[in-house]
Amino acid sequence: MQDIRSHKLAVWAVTPKGAALADTLAKKLPESDLFLSETLGSCPAGARQFSRLSDVVPDVFGAYRGHVFIMAAGIVVRVMAPLIRHKTIDPAVVVMDELGRHAVSLLSGHIGGANRLADRVAAAVGAEAVITTATDLNGLPAIDVLARKKHLVIENPDAVKFVNAAFLKGRPVGCYDPFDMICAHIPGVRAAGSVREFIRFFSKPDADASDRMAGVFIDDICTGLPPDILVLRPRSLAAGIGCNRNTPMEEIEALLVQTLHRFQLSSAGLSCIASIDLKSDEAGLVRLARKHDLPFVTYAREDLGSVQSIQNPSDIVEKHVGVKSVCEAAAILSAQNGTLIVPKQSTRNVTVAIARKRSIS
Asked: Domains plus CATH for the chain?
C-alpha cells in the first residue's frame, strides 16, 4: 500500500449512473482523479479504469487525502476494512448513492476531514451531507479538529474520546496551554497557570478515573501524566545541528534523541532542523530531516554571525566555517529568534542545540 499522501481526491464508480455522477463531481472538484469500472466501456478522458475494486483500492488508498465512492456503502466497507489503520492517518472516505441524494461521511470524519469533504461533495452536486459524529450534531467543538486547525501533533489519540465525552456531557476540562492555542475554544475549561498546578488536577491517588476531570496538555515538555490526559504537541522547537562532513545520519540522530530525552523535550515538538548553508547537501542531515518529515533549513554565515544570544562561541568553528556558532545560532534563527533552551551539546562529530519559539500562531 502506498503511504505518501497527496492533496488529491479519488472519485470511484461502478455503475452507469454512478459514473455520470462521478464525472460531474470530478469536474467540479478539479483536484480529483476519476476511477471507473472497465465494465462501463468507454470512459471520459483521463479516467482510470479498473477490473476489480478490491484489487486497485489497496494500491492507492493511502496515496489520496480523500476518497468518494459512488456505490453501495456495504461494498465500500468490505473493500476498505482491511486497509483501516488509525484515525490519525487514514484518509477521508465519503460514500454517495448513485442518484446523488446523500453524501455520507464514513471514515476519518474529524482528523481526516471526511465531514468537511461530505459537505463539499454535497454542495457540488446538490446532495444532503450525512454527518454522524456526536460533537458535530450537538454543535460542540471536537478536540481533534481544534488540534488539526492549530497544527498540533496528537501524541496519544486514544485520549481524544475522554475530552470529547466531557464536551458532550457538559463537564469541565482541565487545560494547560502556555501558548494560548486552544483554551479559548474549549467550553467549561479550567485553565492551569503552571505545569505543577495542572498535574495536581489529575494526580489525586483516591480519585476514580471514571469521575476525574478530562484534561488537555499542550506543550513541548515531557512530564508524568495519566494516560487518559490528551497530550498535544505544538511545533515550538527548532534543532540547530552542526557536524563534520560525511557524518552518518545515525550518529547525528543519536545525539539529537539523547538531547531531547535529557532535557525532557518531545520530538513531536520539533518544527525543523537547521544548519549552515555549507551543509545544505550534507547527506546525514538531509536524511535525518526526511526520516522525521521535518523541513531542513540552512543559513548563510552572515545570518548566523548576526545572532547575539549564543552561549558557546567557538574559535575552532570560526576558523573552519567563518562563524563562532552553527548549532546555537541556527536553532535561534529557525525558532524565529526564539529562546535558546538547550545550549550546544557535543560529540566528536556532531553538535546539537535547541531553541523554543516565543509564540506560535
From this structure: 9-132 (3.40.50.11220), 147-233 (no CATH), 237-356 (3.30.420.180)
